[in-house]
């Protein structure tokens, strides 16, 4: 139904649950992904990865492989075209892994050492597995430990300073009535999107064209142009459908290898990574070792917040898992110190992974807050409310909006928190101990420069063109609804064209900034189009097009702290005989700006919370110190939450429009996982009376720690 209020027409499109506009294509198999694009004379590449953790390639014995059926070529460091890595990309200097086959040097196990090309993928795989690569092996170090002697403080970056402080930590600790001093660890974790990384490259009329699975075609096209020293207009990257990304689908070795092979063979080439290859070539979340010290007065007000985190990076590229930064916006204290340190080891480079920094950092900080609540005897929610800041605790900037207390209140009411007995181990069902826990969540809400074009077509429809990326989040549908709402028309009259670098620069889908950035650009373009249409006159056959560029408009965002917030609640059951932990129910209430599409927004939040279950109880990549590689780099050995592990998970939100955003939205992609593992861990303490400060909370860890709860019928 369409209604008119004053001069503004609204269709009810914005804020209404809508199924995905491309949903039918996906469920019927009509949607084509990067590994599905049919091209004539297509060849297939299969990457060969190093089997040593450090050393040099001494020989690639390609002659026997070249004699195998269908094999076209073997590309390695001795015959590969030279590439350029001397540039600054959208997210910093490139990881040297993008310079595939440029050197005989091997910096970690799983480093690309060759690409086998064949007529069929089966032939390429068979030949790649038969290829003999010899190495001069060197001693390696992959052992990440807290306080590693080579740990260092990295320089500040555009993502923030490595160290932030105010006040005298030691003096305020000495003056505190209650003190928590605890250490926490999180393991190496991997992305594993449903669709493996894939790219199909070919040359068309002097242009390099790549069909790719990525989170931002603008970035990938720009980097490929730099890597191959091409004019930016000579590279086109399309990524119409993407089966998940989570931070891993940026520029990776397979796109470079595919483009390189297409250049060598003078024909289209497709490179699809295997699941095992993805464990070393697409990044992962670094393990962390974190120490949190909290000091509070008799009322529970924080005098000290001291959060120090350590992580790992490769020897060739610096990436910092900024786990300590979460405390810089969550709670105020007289003395505030947060730092992130890193050590270089012979391991692959980590990268952004859903809620980078905040996910592992919130586990440590929110568990420490629960420990403080236990010591002070103050309810965990009440303790957090007492430490709510009115401005950024470190930056001093005002918040654009901070409706975290409303999340606590609504979550407490719906979860039944008031009925909770704070004593651990008082609820039991046979061999199961029951407990509940909660944690707070936050994630930065920013925006990146984007361009958009909106055309009023002669037939009465509208076309939105923007180089956005839909990585499974429902972005295509959200853009449709934003445009329809701004135009005052039904969504069926709006067509969205996206995921093509030829459409102009736009923000990637990452950091919970994608939809906000694209919606801003679309809103500005629609505003201009409506002004032009208001002048009257017929629409010509080519339509009337308005364009926008938000580069200058988004600069004002830096004047305030902008974050999505949330409150996570969990109920668990712990089997005292097997050590098994079962999450029985979860509830997340979020303040995440104006919600464009409740259906896909809830899907994103629930997905993040489920990942929090995985993080708390299952996910753990283990490295073998002897070989330097992962013990089980596949989905058989890398455990994550399956359907049977997922209980009733509910996500909802409170009203929280951002007043400085033309659409009022923030972001929901990341905040759903933040705090989820902490809420589960806190619930395990409430069930057993034992703190688990090392993730995941495996059955063997539960059994070895035991419980601080008396057996039924015995006095405590």
From TrEMBL:
Record's keyword annotation contains Oxidoreductase: yes
Q: Where is the Aldehyde oxidase/xanthine dehydrogenase a/b hammerhead domain?
A: 28-139
Q: Name one Pfam family in it.
A: Ald_Xan_dh_C
Record carries keyword Oxidoreductase: yes
Q: Which UniProt keywords apply?
A: Molybdenum, Oxidoreductase
Q: Which residues form a coiled coil?
A: none
The protein depicted here goes by the name Xanthine dehydrogenase family protein molybdopterin-binding subunit
Its ancestry begins with: Bacteria, Bacillati, Actinomycetota, Actinomycetes, Kitasatosporales
